[in-house]
Amino acid sequence: MSTQEENQQSLERKVLDFIREHHLVSAAKPLVVAVSGGPDSVCLFHILFGLQQELGVKLHVAHLNHQLRGAEADTDARYVAELAQRFAVPATIEPRDVKAYQAEHRLSLEEAAREVRYAFLAEVARAVGADRVAVGHTVDDHIETILMHLIRGTGSRGLRGLQPKIGWQISGARLTIVRPLLSASREETEGYCQLHQLSPRIDSSNLGLSPLRNRIRHQLLPLLEGYNQRIAEALLRTAGIAGDDLAFLDGAVAEAWDKIVRRQKKAITLDRRGLLELAPALKRHLLRAAIEGLIGNIKDIEAHHIEEIMAILNKPAGKRLCLPGGLIFAVEYDRYVLSSGEAGLSPLPRLEGEFSLKIPGLTRLPGWQVTATILNREQLVAEEIATGDFTASFDFARTGDNLTVRTRRRGDRFQPLGMDQPKKLGEFMIDAKVPQAWRGQVPLVCSPAQILWVVGYRIDERVKVTDQTKRILCLKLEKQPG
Predict the structure, then answer these.
(1) What is the pTM of this model?
(2) What is the DSSP letter of 357?
């Protein structure tokens, strides 16, 4: 057996061991293989084809024509189609207009291509019943990614570089990406393709210096090797240490998560005191985990974004920070809110306009329903009317039955229960520590003369139930789903 053939078998065994070590393949479902036509992805496809029986999987090839390189890209697509046909493996080969997507979403060309590619791979996986997609990233890609993250300042998490398996959320779809070649070099994949006469395609865009990754590959790495001939080993060692440190922090975050974090429909809230008590490293890690838990990934969140959040943790309530992707981090009185947009900052349904209440009876409002009941004192005791933030009782003789529900207006005043003088509604909300994002959505029950109830907080002193009250108005507001 020649040295070349021994190297081939060695690479196949290395890939198989790596797959098993990191549990990259599920025998229960098909495996989508992303094949661009280049040496890495063609090598990956050929090795996985040979391991199908041993791994217990069936392959499905996916190739995306980004429509960025004209005839060259069309030739790549034909090459992949012929490769899949040669090995009798089903394939999905489609074009996508990356330029149009870039213009629509205002992204860099590299970002747009990545998002379109992964959205396509998610579609293919869903269509064929696969739960993961194999891509041809090698150890060289891993090293380049470490340097790219270091240059961009993504923090210790970025120093890990590429991971064998990662979840990716795009366009509402969740995808698991696996990298079986992450222990193999680009030189090994090229040699493998040459040995098997696979004649992979060469992407001319990889030879230019426009993308940052290409400049790292062709300029920075050769320069660094002039300072340290074993720079690749040093970077991989750093990545391994960073991975171990982050694994430890992951465990610490898991312990703190249930005590500090609460998940809502469009937001994640964090207990203010609990978060502030954590060590800085753990704070940063938990904040990243919260962002990832909310939007599915942290690809646009860099180290300086986390530091900006850290800088406002001790700021007064009302401070907020806008982050990439429409995320908002808001400081409230006893908690922080991480929201994917303004709507997630408040749990209260948005109420626009003014609505008359049916008394007695049931009134349905946008996001709410209001139940009004009139009782005498004996009935009140017998019924044991529930109390709570969204339930209140009033002296019906003082409220009357001409009541409405609305949100606050400029100049609103209110005499909170227990006070002898009215005060501005805005001042009351500040004193009651109503979060700023909620204030415009708190329902107000009003008569023609005054505000009767700031729902969830306080009724007006002038309409409270007293010993002289004969008829009692009971109001109950309930949030409606949707």
Answers:
(1) 0.70
(2) P
